[in-house]
Amino acid sequence: MSGAVDASAHRLAPPRASRQREGTPEVGANLRRLRSRRGLSLARLAERSGVSRAMLSQIELGQSTPTISVLWKIAGALAVPFSALITSGGPAAPRVLSARDAKILTNHDGSFTSRALFPFNEPRRNELYELRLTVGGQELAEPHAPGTVENLVVTVGEVEIIVASTVHRLRTGDAILFTADVPHAYRNVGREEALMYLVMAYAEDVG
């Protein structure tokens, strides 16, 4: 574990612009396409994912903005990477991912946010995310697709990562690598907003 640090030197700067939640039209279109490709009805997908049929229908129609937890449940049920649901199409090309235009996903109470640090031009096997967790905040994550691995580093703050029933405490500079196809959680146990970076590696490409 790393030693004590001067918290004031690592205080997070306020975001440069208001954070946006992921737009639903592209999520809905991707959900409909992936569901149809697998021959799943809304009722069957609802049974697999634990997300109600009504909610799935609203997402497909662009009438509801899903939370991180809901999207993970759907991705797990479809056995696809998270990015397969939020991909916005278009040719791949070098580009700057402006923080001002970032698409931010939040949990139900806004204590946990996730910013994708990769372009949404196609599903991929490896994804990089910036995660922020408010003081006392907690995010409970559903098991991801079999073989999914998370590699997370804490750059500011102190957090607990719970994998299955085992608690791992990480301070600034600490990292953890674990298989994420089991229930897991992120908990801020420090005195400041936690900032983390996560690499998500999937076992196979989207079919």
Describe the 3D structure.
This protein has helices at 24-37, 42-49, 53-60, 68-78, 83-86; strands at 20-21, 103-106, 112-116, 126-133, 138-141, 149-156, 159-163, 166-170, 175-179, 184-188, 194-201. 22% of the residues lie in helices and 29% in strands. Strand 7 (159-163) and strand 8 (166-170) form a beta hairpin. The chain has 2 domains: 21-86, lambda repressor-like DNA-binding domains (434 Repressor (Amino-terminal Domain)), CATH 1.10.260.40; 93-201, Jelly Rolls (Sandwich), CATH 2.60.120.10. The chain is of the alpha+beta class. The longest helix is centred in the N-terminal third of the chain and has 14 residues, at 24-37. Residues 1-23 have low confidence and may be disordered. The protein is built from 5 helices and 11 strands. The strands form 2 sheets. The protein has a 7-stranded mixed beta sheet, with no helix packed on it. A 4-stranded antiparallel beta sheet has the order 5-10-7-8, with no helix packed on it.
Judging from the principal axes of the Cα atoms, what is the shape? globular
Strand-pairing-aware structural class: alpha+beta
| CA gyration radius, whole angstroms | 17 Å
Largest sheet properties? 7 strands, mixed
Strand content: 25-35%
Q: Strands across the major sheet, in which order?
A: 1-2-3-4-11-6-9
Mean pLDDT: 82
SS field, number of helical segments: 5
Q: Give the CA-CA distance, first to last residue.
A: 40 Å
Overall helicity: 10-25%
Total domain units: 2
Q: Uncertain runs with pLDDT below 50, 5 residues or more?
A: 1-23
Quickly name the level 1 CATH class of the largest domain: Mainly Beta
Task: Label the CATH architecture of the largest domain.
Answer: Sandwich
Strands, total number: 11
* CATH fold-level assignment of the largest domain: Jelly Rolls
Order of helices and strands: EHHHHHEEEEEEEEEE
What is the fourth-level CATH superfamily of the largest domain?
Jelly Rolls
